[in-house]
Amino acid sequence: MADIDYFREAEILSHYLIHQSPSKKEKLLYADAMQKLNIHLSLEEEKKWNFLMKNNWALPFADAALAVKNPSSTIRRKIFLMLAILEASPKHCEYFLPKKYSSLYLVTFFFVSIRAIARRIFGSLLLKFI
What we know:
By secondary structure, this protein is mainly alpha-helical. The protein has helices at residues 3-18, 24-37, 43-54, 59-69, 74-87, 105-129. The longest helix has 25 residues, at 105-129.
C-alpha cells in the first residue's frame, strides 16, 4: 500500500477520533508505523475497511461493534495506532488530558452511554451486511 493511502487513512481516523486533521508529521508517523508493524487485514476485514474508508460516517458504528465483538481486530489496531500518535502529539494533548466537569455532567454521561449502546447495535447490524 502506498504512503498516500496511509495518509488518507490517517486523515480519516484523525477526523473520527478528534475531529481535526493530523499534521504532516503525524501522517508520516502513521505510515511509518503501519509499514514497520506490517499490519495486514484478512479478506473479510479488508472488505469492511474499504467500506469504512469510503463511508466515513460508518466508522463510529463499526468501532463500537468491534469493541464488543472483536476488540483485538486489525481494524481496531489501526484505530488505536492513530489514537496513540495523536495522544503523543503536543498539538492535540488537550483532547487527552483530564478536565473538570460539574456534577451535571452525569446527565451528559447518561446520554453519551445511550448513544454508545445505539452505535454498538447499529454497528453490529452494519458489519453483518458489509
